[in-house]
Amino acid sequence: MFPSSGSGPYRVLITLPKTPSAELQESLEDRDYGKKSKQKKEKKSKKKKSKAQTSTTTPPEELKQKKWLKSIQPALTLYQKALAGHDEALEEALELFQKIYEEDSDNGLAGAYYGDTLSRSGLKASGYITMFINAHKGMKILDQVVLDHPDNLEIRKLRAYHSFRLPEGFFRRTVTCIGDFEYFLQRYASDPALFSQEEYHQLLYDLGLSYKRIGMDEESAETWQKLSSLQITEELREKVEAQRIDRTEELRGQLAQLGTKEELMAQGIALHDQGLKGDVAAAKVAHEFLEKACEKDRDDALALAYYGCAFALQGKDATDPQEMFRPAAIGLKTVDQALEMDDNPKIRLLRARLAVALPEHFFRTGSKAARDYQQVLLAYEEDHSLLTPEEYEDILYATGAAYLRAGNKYEAKKWWSKLLEVSTDEELKKKVASSSLMSSSSPSPSPSPPSSSSPSSSSLASSSALPSPMRKKYRWEERS
After folding, report:
1. Does the N-terminal or the C-terminal CB of the chain have fewer CB atoms within 10 Å?
2. What is d(CA 435, CA 87) in angstroms, rounded to the nearest whole number?
3. What confidence score (pLDDT) does residue 24 get?
């Protein structure tokens, strides 16, 4: 034991054991008894500091979440495939997440993934009743888990984009996604490391869209102004400008300057294509150019088909159900009439693309789209100039997807098998080959469900609702 008095080195040496420890021996040799002790303390202090920093950046809850996410990787892989458009992967993901949630109902992230996949399955369902039931169940689950875990970013992201995706006219969830987006931006302001620059820019853009969707134009303009002032990609800047500046009257001004059918047709088609990409102003006025083109030549079936597609675009960003569905129903019926006038592959392709853009649970157009795509492919077999090889492969994929949407797995697998035989696009082949449909045993042949509109579609597309120039020339028959 060390003596209670004295501090000189000799006094200490006298009280040492006969066999000093290696550490103490080293201290004696250095002749500096405080040096090693000080270094050890500094080392321990650094370790503690490092642990504290790790704990701050990666709290136990986050580490636990990462570990859990790793454990459910198969379900997450299916979920990512579902986001990429694999409907069969969505069904499998739903089954897995439901089982995971039932086994661990206190796990908020499990509930969030289950609620989101449940809602997505409703939007893909063939019946609108299933759509509403599943969407509302998913909403209820997501709201509860956010209430239980208000600061979990992953959970709130799932709810934000779940609400952002739902049609406002039916579900009124835009206010919810605005609240979540604003929360993310508040968190980003205090800790920019939470989101990448790309994610931050996308959040601002989506918040601007959400404001605009419910008529908060001033807030929308401020948000996009802020986004425009940042270093964003050229593609995103073009999207912002298309939303931020109302070019409707400017585009209508061009209408008076175009005299020939060909000029009107070319500009109308160009605006139609821009509208499909998200240009709101172009979507509003494209049909006006094509209507004028139809008036100059009432026997031009292709002009009428484009007019129908452009007319349907008017409901693309509507929030009121009537405003959403009436233009779509009228547009689809217009294209049907054009096809009766001239059954050619271009018009069939236009109708197929319009049909798949419409919600299946309301319009039942999956089978119609599949048959139109199939006719286009048959025409291509006789005339290869109709499509490029890339377009041919895309339509092969779309044919299978349309049959799958209509519930005809036999036909879907047949067309996707053909795609795997001829395609040179490795990414597309991988997407098809990895689907559960292609890995399962061959389904039995089944007839395609008959194509028909929902009862409300017929009344929405009544002749009295059509623009007067179209009523003068074409007879519209009500579907029974």
Report:
1. N
2. 9
3. 42
Task: Map tokens 């303390």 to a residue.
Answer: 41
Hey, what CATH topology would domain 248-357 get? 1.25.40
Amino acid 150 reads P
Which residues, other chains included, contact 76 with Cβ-Cβ below 8 Å and sequence gap of 6+?
69
Residue with tokens 């040492």: 16
Nearest by Cα to 453 from 372, 374, 358: 358
Residue, of 280 and 230, whose pLDDT is higher: 230
Residue corresponding to tokens 């918040």: 207
Closest Cα to residue 268, out of 242, 302, 317? Answer: 302
Distance CA 183, CA 160 (A): 10
Class of domain 73-171: mainly alpha
Element containing residue 181 per DSSP (H, E): helix 174-190
Residues 6+ away with beta carbon under 8 Å from 437: 88, 404, 409, 412, 413, 416
Q: How far apart are CA 102 and CA 4, in angstroms?
A: 67
Q: Do domains 73-171 and 248-357 have the same CATH topology?
A: yes
Residue pLDDT, tens place only, 399-428: 999 998 888 989 999 999 999 999 988 888
The model's pTM: 0.68
| Torsion, CA 390, CA 391, CA 396, CA 401, rounded to 10 | 110
Going from N- to C-terminal start, the domains of the chain cover 73-171, 248-357
